């Protein structure tokens, strides 16, 4: 029973394919089109997942869209009418798009799917199904988890009407327990601060999370007194007098700006202590809400396990706080927690929730296959591309020799582009499409940000650490394969700060060496941990193990293989272009190794690339 799940038309369009409940493939459209957060119908992603299974559309039993457009349109109309005439500009801009593609989604999907395969419209119509937005999120979190019972929290901006939901998963069933509806949204509250601090909504929220430790949460009381009323069970009500997203084209209004004594920061202007303090404050409030929700979820469902999805579930600092509180015995978070994961959840909900198919738990591992669900490339495909650009490369047949060479380069402080096997599903690079380096290097974070990623210097990097030694390096002893948990660096490897260093504030905190692995230690001694497991990524595990034998350190820097403003790389061409237009030293594409100094000078011009992304 093949089921195709699709998310599209808002951000992070994606496709996912399952067969009898097993996840076959999943990918975001942006990886193929190279348009970050591409919202278009995922033609390329659909073609990929079908090719991966070696089937065609006629072999698919159900095609499931991740939400119900008519209910979402109802919410938009009711909101505009309640705000009229204030929201007319926004209404005038939104309605043509809805009438063209979003509202009559059956017609749109018939047209787009027939571009892939000329099936009769009637046959496509018979396959089409529609999930609900937050049910898709809940299904993406619960069904792949290793739990037969769990509380399920889904928190995001907004679906149809729901912005937050608590559900209880048991065997193959999901029961919705409680919901919070639009316009009251924790995700939109966080996005309002993202907008006000000067970053792009729906993509800059993780920058707020990274900026927060540089600030002091001095605005927490202001936020709680004026913007949001938080109950003990984690439910909340926003004061809509301060927000503009229900009727306008911005997130905040003049009353919000007056509350914080100024208009929103202009993009690319200097980040001041005020922005850092605002980031710290909204992060603190978000953590408080999530912890209270988690406590309520435990009491209400009685479940010992928690599953999380929705865009707010990508807030790995809040996730780490929930874990730290010991509210649940175990926590599992969908790696593609945002709307891309809704495609997978829609397919899984159809199979288990609607078709009532039995669910089997296989040991303690989840069923996400390490999130390595994207496209891989054959040896000849890689070689043909490299030859087409006259690249100089070496092919290393023996894996042990390859691992030895690359770990040696890491030991020698080289920055390595690591492209191996299947691409990751979700926003994190997990050793399939990663840029890696030595976590012990005091200059690595700064150099990677400025010379490789071309992004803000305050942004932290994550560690990849062998699962079996995670508690040696971090105050953490759990699985975190998807880089969705933050925990402090172990006290044994922390460096004590001097009195002068303790007096520093803001961005001046950046250059202090805080631990024996400074490249992955944030200014508050925290790290966003990826535990590497031999079962799901054996080659990456072997690489870090080889590095450990040479250095005694089982931690390396891992950041996504892309530059600012670009999606994570997909193909050998993407990887080579990124390699040649940054200051990476070495590129590894499966068993092919390339050194920067050996490459043709014609492929090295990075001036346009830097100009494009520095100004993003």
Provide structural commentary.
- This protein is of the alpha/beta class and 616 residues long.
- It has 3 domains: 172 residues, 2-Layer Sandwich (Nucleotidyltransferase, domain 5); 151 residues, ATPase, nucleotide binding domain (Nucleotidyltransferase, domain 5, 2-Layer Sandwich), CATH 3.30.420; 236 residues, DHBP synthase.
- 38% of the residues lie in helices and 18% in strands.
- It has 22 helices and 21 strands.
- Strands 13-21-20-14-15-19-16-18-17 form a 9-stranded mixed sheet, with helices on both faces. A 5-stranded mixed sheet has the order 3-2-1-4-5. It has a 5-stranded mixed sheet with strand order 8-7-6-11-12, sandwiched between helices.
- β7 and β8 form a beta hairpin.
- α12 packs across α13.
- The longest helix is centred in the middle third of the chain and has 29 residues.
- The radius of gyration is 24 Å and the shape is globular.
- The chain starts with a strand and ends with a helix.
- The C terminus is likely disordered.
CA radius of gyration is 24 Å
Q: How many runs of DSSP E, i.e. beta strands?
A: 21
CATH class of the largest domain: Alpha Beta
Residue stretches low in confidence (pLDDT < 50, at least 5 long) are 607-616
Q: Give the strand content.
A: 15-25%
**DSSP helix count?**
22
Provide the fold topology.
Layout: E1 2-7, E2 14-19, E3 22-28, H1 30-33, H2 43-53, E4 60-65, H3 69-83, H4 88-102, H5 105-116, H6 121-127, E5 128-130, H7 133-142, E6 149-155, E7 162-170, E8 173-181, H8 186-197, H9 205-211, H10 220-227, E9 228-230, E10 236-238, H11 254-259, H12 273-301, E11 305-309, H13 316-325, E12 330-333, H14 339-354, H15 379-388, E13 394-395, H16 399-411, E14 416-419, E15 433-438, H17 444-453, E16 462-466, H18 470-473, E17 485-488, H19 499-502, E18 526-532, H20 538-551, E19 555-560, H21 572-580, E20 586-589, E21 592-595, H22 607-614
Parallel strand pairs: 1-4, 4-5, 6-11, 11-12, 14-20, 16-18
Antiparallel strand pairs: 1-2, 2-3, 6-7, 7-8, 9-10, 13-21, 14-15, 15-19, 16-19, 17-18, 20-21
Helix pairs in contact: 7-14, 8-12, 12-13, 16-20
């Amino acid at each position: 029973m093949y089921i195709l799940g699709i998310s599209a038309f808002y951000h992070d369009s994606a496709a996912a394919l399952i067969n009898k409940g097993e996840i076959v493939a999943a990918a975001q459209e942006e990886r193929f089109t190279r348009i970050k957060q591409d919202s278009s119908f995922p033609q390329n992603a659909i073609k990929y997942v079908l090719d991966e299974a070696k089937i065609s559309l006629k072999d698919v039993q159900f095609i499931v869209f991740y939400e119900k457009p008519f209910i979402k349109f109802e919410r938009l109309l009711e909101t505009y009418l309640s705000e009229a005439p204030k929201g007319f500009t926004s209404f005038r801009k939104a309605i043509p798009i809805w009438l063209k593609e979003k509202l009559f989604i059956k017609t749109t999907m018939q047209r787009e799917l027939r571009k892939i395969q000329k099936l009769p419209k009637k046959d496509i119509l018979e396959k089409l199904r529609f999930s609900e937005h937050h049910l898709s999120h809940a299904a993406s979190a619960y069904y792949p988890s290793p739990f037969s019972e769990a509380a399920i929290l889904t928190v995001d901006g907004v679906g149809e009407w729901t912005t937050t939901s608590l559900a209880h998963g048991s065997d193959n069933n999901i029961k919705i327990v409680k919901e919070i509806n639009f316009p009251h949204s924790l995700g939109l509250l966080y996005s309002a601060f993202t907008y006000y601090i000067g970053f792009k909504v729906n993509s800059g929220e993780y920058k707020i999370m990274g900026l927060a430790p540089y600030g002091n949460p001095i605005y927490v009381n202001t936020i709680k007194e004026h913007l949001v009323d938080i109950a003990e069970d984690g439910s909340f009500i926003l004061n809509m007098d301060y927000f503009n997203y229900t009727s306008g084209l911005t997130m905040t209004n003049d009353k919000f700006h007056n509350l914080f004594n100024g208009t929103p920061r202009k993009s690319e202007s200097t980040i001041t202590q005020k922005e850092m303090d605002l980031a710290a404050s909204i992060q603190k409030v978000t953590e408080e809400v999530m912890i209270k929700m988690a406590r309520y979820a435990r009491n209400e469902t009685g479940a010992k396990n928690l599953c999380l999805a929705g865009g707010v579930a990508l807030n790995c600092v809040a996730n780490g706080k929930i874990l730290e509180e010991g509210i649940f015995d175990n926590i599992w978070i969908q790696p593609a927690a945002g709307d891309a994961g809704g495609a997978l959840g829609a397919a899984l909900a159809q199979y288990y929730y609607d078709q009532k198919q039995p669910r089997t738990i296989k040991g303690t591992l989840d069923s996400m296959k390490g999130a390595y669900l994207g496209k891989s490339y054959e040896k000849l495909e890689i070689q043909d591309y490299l030859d087409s650009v006259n690249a100089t490369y070496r092919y290393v047949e023996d894996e042990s020799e390859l691992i030895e060479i690359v770990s040696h380069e890491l030991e020698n402080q080289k920055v390595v582009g690591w492209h191996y096997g299947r691409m990751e599903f979700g926003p994190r690079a997990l050793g399939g499409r990663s840029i890696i380096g030595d976590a012990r290097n005091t200059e690595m974070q700064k150099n990677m940000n400025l010379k490789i990623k071309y992004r803000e210097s305050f942004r932290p990097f994550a560690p990849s650490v062998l699962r079996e030694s995670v508690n040696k390096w971090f105050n953490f002893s759990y699985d975190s394969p998807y880089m969705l948990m933050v925990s402090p660096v172990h006290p044994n490897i922390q460096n004590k700060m001097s009195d002068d260093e303790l007096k520093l504030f803001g961005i001046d905190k950046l250059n202090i060496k805080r631990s024996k692995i400074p490249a992955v230690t944030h200014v508050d001694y925290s790290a966003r941990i990826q535990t590497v497991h031999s079962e799901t990524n054996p080659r990456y595990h072997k690489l870090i193990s080889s590095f450990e034998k040479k250095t005694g350190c089982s931690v390396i820097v891992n950041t996504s293989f892309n530059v600012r403003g670009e999606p994570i790389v997909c193909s050998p061409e993407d990887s080579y272009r990124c390699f040649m237009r940054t200051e990476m030293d070495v590129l590894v594409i499966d068993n092919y190794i390339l050194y920067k100094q050996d490459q043709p000078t014609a492929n090295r011009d990075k001036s346009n690339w830097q100009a494009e992304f520095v100004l993003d």
